[in-house]
Write a structure and sequence with these properties.
alpha/beta; globular; Diaminopimelate Epimerase, Chain A, domain 1; 6-stranded mixed sheet; 21 helices; about 575 residues; 8-stranded parallel sheet; single chain; Urease, subunit C, domain 1
Amino acid sequence: MSRMNYTLLIASLLAITIAGCSRDSQDATAPAAAIPDVAPADLVLRGGTVATVDPALGNAEAIAVNGYRITAVGSDDEIAAYIGPETEIVELNGRFAMPGFIEGHGHYMGLGRSKQILDLRNVTNWGEVVSMVAGAVDKAQPGEWIFGRGWHQDKWDSVPEDAVDGVPRNDSLNAVSPNNPVSLGHASGHAGYFNDAALEAAGIDDDTPDPPGGTIVRAPDGRATGLMRETAQRLLSEAIGIYQGRLTPEEMEQIDRERVVLAADEALRHGVTSFQDAGTSLEGIEFFKKLEEEGNLPVRLYVMVRRASNEVMDEVLPQYKMLPEGNDFLTVRSIKRQIDGALGAHGAWLLEPYADLIETDGLVLETVEDIERTAEIAVKHGFQVNTHAIGDRGVREVLDLYERAWKTMDVDGKDLRWRIEHSQHIDPVDVPRFGQLGVVAAVQAIHGTSDGPWIPTRLGDERAKATSQPWRDLFNTGAIVTNGTDVPVEPIDALASYYASVSRMMVNGERFYPEHAMTREEAMQTYTINNAIAAFEEDIKGSLTPGKYADIVVLSQNLLTVEEEKIPDTTVDITIVGGEIKYKRGM
């Protein structure tokens, strides 16, 4: 359908939404006078470059919005017909507009919580961690827990000489906080560091056995160092729950509401209009439902069900399934499972042992059999399965169990769009299976460049190069590749992850196996339309196509043409969700 015919159809039907259209170059240059009268838009952005991420539309200059949907895109002259006396006009002044970023894998409430506790992401050594804890203790009451997150020993400039497995012992932490339990989460979330007061509160001593899928790291003399890998962190859950139980339900809800607002502020400031939440309990989903009914969800959420048994899910999934309707801010149609841990914590499940810890090949956090049963339940109830797998053995096991489940349930897996979250290290033999099976590779590009300097120490150079973040090979198989940050593991900075996608540039100034870098267009697709496809939402999100949500971000520079080294200088100037301006830089 041509642009002219499309506008006539809009006028004749007195509607402002339609599924989509195409525009050829002849229509794009038609004078404004040739366009018939149309209903005025509520909002118009003009005078810039509009990347629609719709191949039928290409790039434009302006965009018109009515309500929460896009009405039209085109040249400034074409969109001038949609400007009425009440139309709000945003002058782009040469700036770059594109679909709002979709965070493809993050932890929404975790992002909010990270703003309420010690932020340890930028510490450069153990001494800084201890100093920050000491400062928090000075402000705390005796017995009050101190929480923090974000430390990563492989990013420090040094570690104490008596470190165990590259991580300090907790003696200095005990010295500054003898009466306040301390819980410090690793950046990955796959390990935690605790002082003796916390261990004692949980009843953990030198004789406590390792739980399945976890490790209580011990010094050579058998003493617990304070480091708890993977599921061992759960041994502290009851003690932390008892501490948090001092709050009333109303007080806990107020804390959670604050987290929602803090997370939204961060998301909108970084141009994120939709957020795929990688794991929320049924209780958490009920909380989100309440907020949506109140109109208090500022960012669109695609939530994965987490921490419910197979028996419970088989019973309740139908009542929790929520598909988009109208200007929807909450979708629930997927399940999150986790087969292994993280590489930094030696928890990723590998085909061969770690190069720097040869006594282990990683940890299995949830059994293959249990996840496979989840897969069958998901097929039964029409849910997507999204499984965390970082190590090459973990990825292979998930691909295998997906195939078995589809055969058992007699379904075509390609239609299900099941995902492997992270897909960080993939044996070359398994890469083609993503495209062949229709499995989505839900990656976080920023992980490759953030972790790149130390990945070879875990895997060795040869294995690291062969398996690490092979995006180019995944694209070549026809697989859908998505993008995100895994916030709060990394900051919710879509521009940083976009830059990592196209440059593979690490903080040390070297490129992380650059042969797998994405093109500018591919990187933009991974953060927009591909994320929408991975959530079955491509009809309403992911491109600036008339009829879709008016979720738009305005950037200071054109990501498709600016010099590569200047991409990190780009700023988010405006974020629009459902036709409403939710963020303006400097305001």
